[in-house]
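Teaching soon. Invent one.


***
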Amino acid sequence: MLILSRVLLGFGTSAAYPASMFLLRSESERTGAQSPAGVLAVLSIANQVMAVVGPTLGGVLIGVGGWHLIFTINVPLSLACLVLGRMRLPRRAELPAAVRARQDGGVDIAGMVLFAGALVSSMLFLMEPALAHWYLLVIAGVVGLVFVLRELCAAAPFIDLRVLGGNAPLLATYGRQVLAFVTAYAFLYGFTQWLEEGRSLSASVAGLVLLPMSLSAIVITAITGRRRQVRGKLIAGGLLQVAACACLLLLGPHTGIWLLVVLGVLIGLPQGLNGLANQNALYYQADPARMASSAGLLRTGMYLGALIAAAADAAVFPHAADSAGVHELAVLLLVVSVLLVIVTLVDRSLARVGRAAT
């Protein structure tokens, strides 16, 4: 029942972001405002940064009414979204011909099954990497290849891989999204577990310790949101991630609360910068007619980062979230963060993002 509930929540959250990006693009073309940097910043706060509030709110809700409350709270929020959407959203948007053609093609059930098969096989290996499990990588590779070939030929693909054709800058943005969120979610999951098990804090207190992380992410997004250029944000975000991951090496069972709060503030800054910058890059790099598909793939990159992060946390915390495991996690995340900085520095196309907007 829990898995079914999470699947239904996933349908809703996954549909919301591509629809929002498509709506922004269509309204931008209708009104002639080609650079809605401020609106993109607000969307980033709502879509990327506010996700960081989850641990804090979740800890408080669990402390108040148990774990059931973290699901129940979505009911009034969803009803409010329905009412506001009915009142404020445009009644109709003109769909590009390519989008209409995809809608007429039905639902790609086979593509969904193949994608899930490749993903599950990869995750099973990552959760327990060993030579004895080599066959899982083979299964993932074969199923993934079949998935790619099918999606490229399908009239209505589950994931429109054709949005990537000849668009190297967009591919780089997806890669940065995965790298950024591997670190963000591995820190979020791992640090939260360590606060409760390694530092012996209650769920409510652990959530409150993480609150400054949410606030710093929101503040940095609000401050930098109206700047269309993204390269500086990504470089700063990557370097701050490196610093935050290095700080994980200093944690121990008696680390002071104030140091934990400072670390939370530090890690919140790159979460705000990277999510906003990759979203802005997507807006300028994607084909306008395929904006929804492109935004969906960006969202997929975020989820892939979360899945890899979950596997990493499972690997370093095989029995309990202790300080030794946090230090192992820190080394892994340092490698990922350095790679993010390198990928950003070598991508010269980022210097042009936002400068041509009027």
